[in-house]
Amino acid sequence: MADIDVDVLVIGWGKGGKTLAGALGRKGRSVALVEQSTAMYGGSCINIACIPTKDLVHSASERRPEDDPQAWFTTAVAGRDALTEKLRARNHAMLAEVDTVTLIDGHARFTGAHEVQVSAGEDTLTVHAEAIIINTGTAPAEPRFPVESSRVFDSTTIQHVDPLPQRLVVIGGGYVGLEFAGMFSKFGSQVTLIDHGDTFMRNEDRDVADAARTLLEETGVQIILGGDVRSIRDEAGSTTVALAVGDQSRTLTTDAVLVAVGRRPVTAELGLATAGVAVDERGYVVVDDRLRTSVPHIFAVGDVNGGPQFTYISLDDNRIVMDQLDGSGVRSTTDRMAVPYTVFLTPPLGRVGMNEAQARESGRRVLVASRPIADIAAMPRPKIVGETHGLIKLLIDADTDLVLGAAVFSIDAQEVINLVALAMRHDVTAAELRDSIWTHPSSTEALNEVLAARHPLGS
Predict the structure, then answer these.
(1) DSSP state of 48
(2) E-strand spans in 79-159?
(3) Are 52 and 80 in contact (CB under 8 A)?
(4) Which SS3 state, helix, strand or coil, does residue 312 take?
(5) CATH for 4-140+264-335, among 3.20.20.30, 3.50.50.60, 3.30.43.10, 1.20.1050.10?
(6) How far apart are CA 307 and CA 68, in angstroms?
(7) At the N or C end, where does the chain have fewer CB atoms within 10 A?
(8) Helix (H/G/I), strand (E/B), else coil: 343
(9) What is the pLDDT of residues 258-305, one digit of tens each?
């Protein structure tokens, strides 16, 4: 393999990196993109994260009580695999068809500030680049307790568990754990969720968290708070999870365990120190507000830079770096306002801006507009589709009438929360949202009714 010189080298095929590679290549820049796994063309989102997991969530939500759990799950996984295969092939083609982009399979490691060695088996290649973009993402964090079991999975491997576990223990009460707990419960597993914290969904308002907990428990998920897992072991054909809850010891017997205790950056094998690239105590690449590392011509985009771990943040990282490499250089992470997120329960929970505790602490006079989904007469869509769990809650500045934050826990929440976020970014008032004309029947029209009834925070 001959050594090559390029204008830009991208390490890792995530959302931000692949978008930059394509955009710069189409502008005539010479670009090399290195990916160590052929199964990850297109990045985590389409292969192991956002898309396949939400496809499984959707499949699980459509299973009827009379449908055989194992057969339904097997079909769902096959559909998931077919979808990711198509997306992976399309993502590869989108870059392969750009003449100035060179795609390289192999493991990248810095050998200097401008040089990376790529290894693939016995073959090696040195890539010299004027600018380098680190886009290697994150991987599931390892548990800190002893594991002596062949039935322990992470958020990637659990997607192909075989057979479907009749009993599943999920360790971790974060959004990944919650999504998988809800999903597998609907597939037909008996799910126990262990959250190390004493407060369920501690970053959410209590009314929102309570509504989410009620939903999960109604689908059969048992929730254990304050659970400190001590070990996981295989014993007599089953798997046992030993834990302490307060001063009480407990043992759970299960068929499989999902460990969802966070993510870690994929940086250990990159040789960043050789290039002079600084990382923090957890291994995330340290960047400034324009995503430059400690070496000015090296950038880091996506989850690896320690920012919010969302695909759409990686896409915005691409915009910032593109502005540095081929623009005015003024865009930065400080431009981001009202960034929403969604937890894909069934129905989903979308959030943006302040929660109630933050609004209380802000010193503003705050009004609350909140209503359970089942009670919103002007929102028939949930009743049409037969899913009336959840609530809608907005926090409004009483003096400016601007929306400070919102929780939309409902069918179509992932869409409605985007509208609210856009309104927040452009100073659209609560009155404008309340009095706007929305299609019918839709979930958006709930804003007409919910925002019509506002009351002071705490009243």
Answers:
(1) T
(2) 101-105, 107-110, 115-120, 123-134, 138-140, 147-148, 152-153
(3) yes
(4) helix
(5) 3.50.50.60
(6) 41
(7) C
(8) strand
(9) 999 999 999 999 999 999 999 999 999 999 999 999 999 999 999 999
270 is written with which tokens? 């990159």
Give residue 306's region: left, alpha or beta (phi > 0; psi -120 to 50): left
Domain boundary assignment for the chain: 4-140+264-335, 147-261, 341-456
Position 4 pLDDT exceeds 80: yes
Cβ-based neighbours of 291, under 8 Å, separated by 6 or more: 299, 300, 301, 305, 317, 320, 321, 324, 333
What span, in angstroms and rounded, lies between the C-alpha atoms of 459 and 367? 9
Fold of 341-456: Enolase-like; domain 1 (3.30.390)
Q: Which two tokens stand for residue 260?
A: 């969802």
Map tokens 């002071």 to a residue.
Answer: 456
Same fold, 4-140+264-335 and 341-456: no
Q: What length is written for the chain?
A: 459
Q: Where is 267: in which H helix or E strand?
A: none
pLDDT band at 459 (very low <50, low <70, confident <90, very high): low
CA atoms within 13 A on the CB side of 449: 17
Query: For domain 147-261, which architecture applies?
Result: 3-Layer(bba) Sandwich (3.50)
**Catalytic positions, written as ranges:** 440
b/e burial code for range 214-234 (CB count within 10 A of at least 16 → b): ebbeebbbebbbebebeebee
Query: Is the model's pTM score more than 0.90?
Result: yes
Distance CA 14, CA 18 (A): 6
- The CA–CA distances, whole Å, from 362 to 365, 370, 397 equal 9, 20, 10
